[in-house]
Amino acid sequence: MTDRQKRLLILGGSPFQIPCIEYAKSKGYYVITCDYCPDNPGHKYADEYYNVSTTNLQSVLKLSRKLEIDGILAYASDPAAPTAAYVTEKMGLPGNPYKSVKILSEKDLYRSFLRQNNFNTPWYGGFNNLKEFAKSSSQFSYPVLVKPVDSSGSKGISAVNNFWEMDKAINYAIKFSRSKRFIVEEFIEKKYPQLDGDIFVYDGKIIAYYLGDQRNDVAVNPFVPSSINYPSLLPQWVHDTIKTDLQRAIDLLKIKMGGFNIEVIVNENDEVYLIEMGARNGGNCIPEIIKCASNVDMIKMSVDTCMGLEPSILEQKLIDSFYTTYVIHSNKDGYFKSVELDDVISKYVLDVKLMVQEGEEVLKFNGSNCTVGVGLFEFPDLQVRDKMMNNIEQLIKVELE
Question: Domain 321-401 belongs to what topology?
Fold first, then answer.
């Protein structure tokens, strides 16, 4: 390592983080990765790896000071986002306020922020156990959703139809919560498909906005997104309202920069709800499909910005085809053998990234931790896209041993 070579610490080494590591290396940075999973495939692309948990604020700060890093990035990792903000604040590196990122990373804090600032938000409560919830249960009308406060990737979510189902749902949520806390929130009936995608902020302003229409494999799990379609087919006023609300939230939180993963619901009264504002780029290859569709490279922008450079958008184009990122998954547990693509859909494939190897355990699709792979597709028109995606579970099959 030379004194002239700038050092970037990337929190994590999952398959979704590999494009970020590769881009940083291509820029000539000395790339260090850390997490508590030494077998994560991203680490072999880095110059150096440390077995340090990405959620341990003090340990990552200590490592960052020891390595004299020039930038730190929690790319596509919700749990690591507060850590990156904490380190940038302590070391004076490019980043966002720790307090704000913590609010965005814990659902009860985020819902409180929304309520206090007159955004639409579901009726909710944060709790530690069933006994606590029971004292407030009369405030809720069923069905409700039960969620871990600090999990991502739709893990640990249940719909509950009566009080007697709560104990099981709470235990399931707490299983995926680092702080062992959960929220119960009102179930909102959607008028349109849920919106999901990424925005990019620089100098406190939204400079790129790409939300697509989410789809779920309801036969397996109605709460885990299985695909996102671009461009969104929702009315323009919906997106204009979302942009206005997002910018107001960014202003209030004093957010300065970076990629943000956004989830939005529009209810039957045309009210917009900012369900999630994750302080990191989306997983499931969302930045990759956005680049395919629009030529806007949020991977590049994220690395550049955290290293103190102004992000550039070169040759941005209108989305003139129909693009989809699809999460390849199984409807049952087993051991991975292969993924079979029907010839009918093969000609529309831009890329297929597998996250598991032959013989590895595969779980039924109950969260992003159950992902087998991700397919990126380009379709020539809406009719073809709908025909393919309406039958996608038959056209892309996960073979198990």
Answer: D-amino Acid Aminotransferase; Chain A, domain 1 (3.30.470)
